[in-house]
């Protein structure tokens, strides 16, 4: 333990990192539009992601209208429904969550938390955002081409994705694939930047094993993304070729509605392997930053160090590595070689061990802490509940034989929404509340924040917990309507209606969140410096919000890990990372006893 | 206090919901009861862990609620505790994984006496091909598909002559006999799913996939397509009727063989249903049917 607490750091030499040459904006445009400051880029990324996320929210309402009240909304045709679910899924996973965690939180937090003035490559960082924005516009454009956006499901499985029985199989799918390729190009620029900054630009004393878990989560997630996205890129390009040039990478011999198509010899399963080789790590690309951030929220607001820091770090690394050898658990009933099932079920359930340890350590951080139940902490607790729930249902689906009856049912929908929809979104909200004072210098309204939490958390739980049971009944996912089916009794319809009503409530409650954010930003109370009493570096900047270059004249020196809360003998309940041991105010009696302890 | 109470209520409420839920699996109609057992084992292991952790969180929130002068415990690591938790979790994982792998082994090991038959999926209907008296299916390939040969059976293969073709109609199966389903697709991915049988497998164009089961209960069971296959996906339904042997034999006797349908074609008076190949306009019809439902 001694390598991360203050004990063995006697003296830290002054900064030897060469000062970074920063681009100083000369006009409004270079300050707020084509900006190279990671903090502004972060806000741009986050705003774009949330804006497109709202489109996904509206799409989810439309699909829930259809599912909850199948006979009442004649304007929703099957084609529309399949387009809604596809766009909703793709936006949420890629354009919202990935962009928000890495482009948004990554950009804002990495330089501040590791003590850097900015990202290693500010110009590339700026280009990354503009390419991402282009990808979003291409995605939006697909709504306006003849035939509309693709309705192939977010997994875009060929052959149907590019055949005429699927909505949007002309312009829609082409723009979707182009947009994904652009997203990956943009992300790669940003991602390299995050990795290099973490490895290269940490301030003196900020060893890897002193980094806050937020940074560990974002760092490992970025590495995963850099390795996983190329598989999707390849898949997207090959499918584009199949669509546009008539190649047959994924297309076997097909008779479509009586006509022999000119394809032959390709493999639909090959695409699935490429897709999930990206798709499974993608789950952790979203989850690992959430793991990291929530660890910090829990520690700060429990006024206690994170429990088992080193195990938490290793768990992130191990989960990240294992996430590359579990992808085919999405394909147990895909028709791949059935013997893969043994391997992938085993690796999948092994991943549960480090993941469970993380859950234990979050709860053990609460143990003997001093818990402040403010809004960020409530969201963190909501995350523990929903993530645990979603993780547990993952043990059902990962266990190959159980997946047979449950795959492609609403159980799967409930599972992945709980684990990578609700849980990470709760962290996003918690993180926004937590860092709102840092980013804006203002304080948000606790009352509105708590109201937002309870409606969102309980509402989301009521949406997704019962949904699992529809899967047990056998309700398939991606069904426009259930029709007259013996086994789907009236109660199935009633539950669907209930779930739909809850989605509208939870969705509308987000207005409170936006109101709170805008109102507090415009007219909120000014926040004091470091209002939470946090020990990590981002709160120790000379100004709040931090200025261009973050650290004023000189970079901070780091003497300890980011979790020195409740240090025995210290006068205050936290010691900032950049406080030298000799400066730590100690209680008189304690000073003696700590000395004797050291001796 | 209220927060702690709500967390406890979420834990208790989830358990109560589970016990009271009217939404539960359908009565099983195949030999895959062991899969259900594995699910129950998983429910017990994970349910206990879930409830325990939520109650612990609730307790912590109440017991260690903020007080100005509370001293928190400074104990960054506790190797003994972490080791114990790792070991216990690993045991839990083994308890769940072992029956899962055993069940999977059974699922992919087809008994020798299983009768093979083919399911041919197409947008958006189910077709079946049963072996005739010789007990063997003839070779088939999508490239052979024509209006008169909708299954693409190889007309040169003698095994195929007596194959029984069922186009867009109900499938009958005899009770108590293991069947191996050979799954073939004409166009896109489909998935043959009957909730009561518990089994399920994707149907992939360009290859033949399979799974097996033994029907254990007579009755009429609905087939649902479980892999998104285009705009008519949700309307791709069918029926499997599990019969006792006598009714099954009677039904089987009434079906047409490949040779018979070909002969009818050559005679120019094709009977029976139109081949599913009736062409593009059908897409419009199918979509219409789907929307009007």
Write the layout of secondary structure elements.
The complex is a heterodimer of chains A (about 600) and B (about 290).
Chain A: H1 28-33, H2 38-68, H3 78-114, H4 122-141, H5 171-200, H6 213-244, E1 255-256, E2 259-260, H7 268-302, H8 309-322, H9 340-366, H10 375-398, H11 400-406, H12 410-440, E3 442-443, H13 446-473, H14 490-523, E4 525-526, H15 588-598
Helix pairs in contact in A: 2-3, 2-4, 2-14, 3-5, 3-6, 3-7, 3-12, 4-5, 5-6, 6-7, 6-8, 7-9, 7-10, 7-12, 8-9, 9-10, 10-12, 10-13, 12-13, 13-14
Chain B: H1 2-20, H2 33-63, H3 79-108, E1 115-122, E2 125-130, E3 164-167, E4 171-174, E5 179-185, E6 190-193, E7 200-203, E8 209-213, E9 219-225, E10 237-243, H4 245-253, H5 258-266, H6 281-292
Parallel strand pairs in B: 1-5, 4-10
Antiparallel strand pairs in B: 1-2, 2-3, 5-8, 6-7, 6-9, 9-10
Helix pairs in contact in B: 1-2, 2-3
Give keywords:
heterodimer, A: 599 residues, mainly alpha, Cytochrome C Oxidase, Chain A, two-stranded antiparallel ribbon, 15 helices, B: 293 residues, alpha+beta, Immunoglobulin-like, 2 domains, 5-stranded mixed beta sheet, 19% strand, disordered C terminus
Strand-pairing-aware structural class of chain B: alpha+beta
Fraction of helical residues of chain B: 25-40%
Described by strand count, sense and barrel closure, the largest sheet of chain B is:
5 strands, mixed
**Structural class by sheet pairing and helices of chain A:** mainly alpha
Number of strands of chain A: 4
Major protein interface: A-B, 115 and 113 residues
Short description:
The complex is a heterodimer of chains A (599) and B (293). By secondary structure, chain A is mostly helical.
Task: Explain this structure.
Chain A has 15 helices and four strands. A two-stranded antiparallel sheet of chain A has the order 1-2. Chain A has a two-stranded antiparallel sheet with strand order 3-4. Chain A has helices at 28-33, 38-68, 78-114, 122-141, 171-200, 213-244, 268-302, 309-322, 340-366, 375-398, 400-406, 410-440, 446-473, 490-523, 588-598; strands at residues 255-256, 259-260, 442-443, 525-526. With 599 residues, chain A is mostly helical. By secondary structure, chain B is α+β, with helices and mostly antiparallel strands. Chain B has two domains: 2-65 and 79-108, no CATH class; 115-273 and 286-292, Cupredoxins -  blue copper proteins (Immunoglobulin-like, Sandwich), CATH 2.60.40. Chain B is built from six helices and ten strands; from the N terminus they run αααββββββββββααα. In chain B, strand 6 and strand 7 (200-203) form a beta hairpin. In chain B, helix 1 runs antiparallel to helix 2 and helix 2 (33-63) packs antiparallel against helix 3 (79-108). At the A-B interface, helix 3, strand 1, strand 2, helix 7 and helix 8 of A face helix 1, helix 2, helix 3, strand 7 and strand 9 of B.
